[in-house]
Design goal:
With 333 residues, the protein is of the alpha+beta class. The protein has 2 domains: 2-139; 147-167 and 248-333, no CATH class. It has helices spanning 2-27, 51-74, 82-105, 123-128, 134-139, 176-200, 209-221, 306-319; strands at 34-39, 45-50, 169-174, 224-230, 233-238, 244-249, 253-261, 270-274, 277-281, 285-292, 297-301. A 5-stranded mixed sheet has the order 7-10-11-9-8, covered by helices on one side. Strands 3-4-5-6 form a 4-stranded antiparallel sheet. A two-stranded antiparallel sheet has the order 1-2.
Length: 333
């Protein structure tokens, strides 16, 4: 039964991609040589692309998304929601490409001049198309998501404080991965949007700039951040935007470990969120692994993580009246 459901989910990834060549074959004689590919805020299309080129480009993107999704679904990947996430993302991507294709073709049927085409209600398919990804999500089963184990633990002594003493530790970390992505995003967006904005204002780019700015802000959020450990517990805050990314109160901690973090154990590089665990992984190497009372885990890449681990272990010992000792000792690597 599970095999049949997965097979059907994979077929759903290819269905939107198959619609593109079918509609191209059926409609080609009724379409102008150039197809509308961008619309102005006033209504009619203000840009057109050669129909064969647009067809080849969108079909290639759709086939690539379906192929990658299929390969990953057939791979023995671990994680409770891994397969559902892959199926949902691939399905949404392929459906979005189909929505863009229908915007450019269905609106241009029996039209001689593509620059007279108005989008009208055909914008709706591209907006709702990502919801198609919910279909493979519903079909694919949940997997197992066991906690990430830390091998070869190395004992880390908790920091003992005298009565009335307090301690705080903090470090600022820059992520070259996110800095590079931010630069690339700006390199693509500035030449694409700035000339149009300078020429005719924000109305010329319309709502298309909103997802771009949202993506840019999301990347900037992780370019640099401050990690802080004090009597309140553990915090990660974005340096550029001042937004808290992760908070773990001292009373919620039951285990603190230093580990050699393997990116693929935590879902890859960057800010990762998965059922039961999350992580900020910049590279393979030393980092901090926190386990909360409800079993959730959080990992973060850090140089010399023994220092914050010692402070956190001291906080755990204080919360339990000093009975924990070096409980949750760190594993080093």
């Amino acid at each position: 039964m599970r095999t049949a459901r997965k097979t059907f989910a994979i077929l759903l990834l290819w269905l939107p991609a198959a619609v593109i060549p079918v509609t191209w074959a059926l409609w080609r004689s009724r379409l102008p040589r150039e197809l509308p590919s961008h619309w102005s805020a006033s209504g009619p299309a203000d840009s057109a692309t050669d129909g064969a080129t647009l067809f080849a480009w969108l079909l290639g993107v759709a086939l690539a998304a379906a192929a990658v999704g299929t390969a990953l679904l057939l791979a023995p990947l671990k994680g409770k929601w891994t397969q559902r996430a892959i199926g949902g993302l691939a399905g949404s991507t392929v459906a979005l490409v189909l929505g863009l294709w229908l915007m450019s073709t269905a609106t241009a049927l029996d039209v001689a001049d593509p620059y007279t085409v108005e989008l009208g209600p055909w914008i709706i398919p591209s907006m709702v198309a990502p919801l198609y990804g919910l279909l493979p999500v519903a079909l694919l089963p949940k997997g197992d998501s066991p906690p990430v184990g830390v091998a070869e633990p190395e004992r880390v002594e908790p920091l003992r404080l005298r009565e009335g003493e307090s301690v705080a530790w903090s470090r600022t970390i820059s992520s070259w991965l996110f800095v590079a992505v931010a630069v690339l995003t700006l390199a693509i967006g500035v030449p694409s949007y700035l000339p149009a904005i300078l020429d005719g204002g924000l109305r010329t780019v319309g709502w298309t700039i909103i997802p771009y700015l949202a993506g840019l802000l999301l990347v900037l959020l992780f370019c640099a951040y401050r990690v802080t450990v004090d009597w309140r517990g553990f915090r990660v805050t974005s340096m550029l935007l001042g937004i808290p990314l992760k908070r773990v109160a001292a009373e919620q901690l039951v285990e603190v470990e230093v580990a050699t973090l393997e990116p693929m154990d935590w879902g890859g590089w960057g800010f990762r969120i998965m059922p039961g665990r999350s992580a900020i992984i910049l590279r393979k190497g030393p980092g901090l692994v926190l386990t909360q009372a409800d079993g959730r885990q959080f990992a973060i890449t850090l140089k010399r993580p023994e220092q914050p681990a010692s402070v956190l272990l001291g906080l755990i010992a204080d919360e339990e009246g000093g009975s924990s000792g070096a409980r949750g000792g760190a594993s080093g690597g």
